Amino acid sequence: MAARVERRMIEVEGATIEVFLTGTESPAVCQSHTFVGTLPEPMPDGQFPWPWDGSIRGLVSVNPRGVGNSSARNGPSDFTLRQHLDDLEAVRQQLGVARWVFWGSSGGGVLAQAYALALPQALSGLIIMSAGPSGPRVGADTTSRLSPHNPQYRDEMARLAADPLRERRQAILASVEPRFRDAAWLRLREGVWVFFYAGQPLAVTGENERVWASMEEAFTFEVWDRLHEIVLPTLVVAGRLDDAIPIAHSALVHTGIAQSEFVVLAESGHAYPDPESADGVQLRLAIERFLGRLQEA
Fold this sequence. Notes:
Layout: E1 6-12, E2 15-21, E3 29-32, E4 59-62, H1 81-95, E5 100-105, H2 107-118, E6 123-129, H3 135-140, H4 154-162, E7 183-189, E8 192-197, E9 200-205, H5 209-218, E10 234-239, H6 247-256, E11 260-265, H7 278-296
Parallel strand pairs: 3-4, 3-5, 5-6, 6-10, 10-11
Antiparallel strand pairs: 1-2, 2-4, 7-8, 8-9
């Protein structure tokens, strides 16, 4: 079913936010991520794949500051989860949506948990994919490729720790100011950096300014002992083969939220599955059932 995807530029305090939508019908569903856009590229025939094919009529994608045609990020406050949530709220109110379902994957899944804890009155439900409730726990998990304790980084981390000149290699990109005391990014090798916080290595990532700034807060994010405060209907989705956020971390989200259901995609990793694959069909059906139940409630 073809759908018209509308693009709007919405003014919020201090910025202009790029928004794509297929409508605001109930239950409206908002997608956003901490450092990437969420609108997929159209297929060769010009149509968008699910869920932008019209299956969800009230789908809204919000590009955060610094992504797409939204305003550039100008300082540390623009990288915070709180600023992102304030912008989402300004967009929701200007669209006239009373409450919406927030759908976040990976960094967006962290944002979803923060949203539910800070502004539950704005939400009718959550879809949380490929995300855990504790950045430090992911950073300590040797099976995660984002962990500096993963075996692939072990020798490099040992050399870095032993190097008395390591402070000379501290490299905060000129346009990204550190938002945390004692925070530093150190280079392991070409294109690979490790985030240190209070002297402890927390995360490994590539050389990308937006990722760095967003991961700082994501990997100091810790809400696993507050998940019981989330009383919204929640769908938690995990890829069994996810090597970034291993499935055990998604399971913590599920067990911590009383009104949650857990869906495991057997052949998927951290990325969204192909819409035509068995996992893609399973994901679509799970989300459609979840939204259907919310609409009936």
